[in-house]
Write a structure and sequence with these properties.
Length: 329
Amino acid sequence: MILTHRFDDIDNRALAHLCGELDAHLHALARRLGVVVSRRGAQFRIDGPAAAARRAAAALDQLRALADRPLSPEAVDLILTQAVSGLGVGPAVASLAEPSAPADVEPKLHTRRHDLAARTSNQQRYLRQILGHDLTFGVGPAGTGKTYLAVACAVDALERHQVQRIVLTRPAVEAGERLGFLPGDLAQKVDPYLRPLFDALFDLMGFDKVARAQEKGLLEVAPLAFMRGRTLNHAFVILDEAQNTTPEQMKMFLTRIGFGSRAVVTGDTSQIDLPRGTSSGLIDALQVLDGVEGIATTRFTRADVVRHPLVGRIVEAYDERDARTGGRR
């Protein structure tokens, strides 16, 4: 299919922004969607499969809407990622859909990041599942937004007074390194393990608001070992890096969920740092809890990676190696 797309109201400056330096944006669009894009002035010719050509034309419209100023790499990548997934680009801010909302209503989050929105169809599904289930598993490679979106949902629920506090936890397991003795008090010892969660909180709430929430007991970030013996009522609870739990730790965490609480478990089963021969609690839980009412699972793939495009290619390379070797190192 050949589509002709023309912008009659665009000046040379905006056209340069739309196309990118040496037409870099057009080359990226063609590569990501598997089409051929050529242009003469402000007229674009798109040649490729019908669905891909229409998505490419829609992506050009999105680029044009932002082209009055230079386009950031993040903005271009967001538009192309949405085009590849077939996800329409809607307004960046709206109220988060209720669990009963129609499937075609895009969930949105109220946080400090007013531009926060799902970038892929899987991310949309993930947000809907978090809203509609007491327990949601988000499983997939790095860079797919599993943890960030879960923290955003938690911040949104706290702001709306749907929960009384946020509890974020992860196992204290080194990623293939032995850090040895760490000086300082308990908070300083566990801080390196919990830093990714704090980074997401600072981005979504701001440093001062995070500090105030901790002082008031509205926010708790702690190692998984601290969860034993507790019952978490009216809380939004997130277990991050769950692939590094043992089956016993996972069962302990899941049985902490109390009344009025919502839990999200995130992890990447390709990055298990447990000692050799130790079973992953995440893999075990996905098998044991398959089909249990009230539990949902979103499985992300490399197509959902929303970090630098190179991250997606890195994930793809490792997946291909694992497919050839059967996961053996």
